[in-house]
Amino acid sequence: MFCPTCFQKVNVELQRELVLDFEQLPGVLQEIASLIGPENAMKIAQTYGGVRLYVPKRMKPDHPLAELVGFENACALSTALGGLAHLYIPQSHVLILEARKRAILNDRSQGMSIRELALKYRLAERHIHTIQKAALKADLAAARLAQETLTTTNLSKEDRHDR
What we know:
Layout: E1 11-15, E2 18-21, H1 27-36, H2 38-48, E3 52-53, H3 64-69, H4 71-81, E4 87-88, H5 92-109, H6 114-121, H7 125-162
Antiparallel strand pairs: 1-2, 3-4
Helix pairs in contact: 1-2, 6-7
């Protein structure tokens, strides 16, 4: 995905070998990322995830936000979001779990064994099986929904044709 401010390909490194596309960030983090970059948005999510964040209208160099993302970035946030209502920052662990799940499924599709995945991601083999099974169920549900939609559409066309 491309960052809207710098128009460069952006992946946010979450944990060892896990990346998150800019597009996968929740709304408020996408807005923050567009102002100060995805890496800094994730720093904010990791620090303030699950709580409300107030961005002051006038940023000071010793403000915790300035210390976290740098004074220049904090000023950019202050200019765009300063003085508004408190922003609810989503918890970063949900983003990390989703990115890990996608990485596991990708590695599995590339031929890695359950054992190798368990060792790589420091999970139980049973948990890898659970992730794989849930993904398979989701794929089957999506396929059924697509089939039902196609069938309904075809029936509607036949009804119109008969009239």
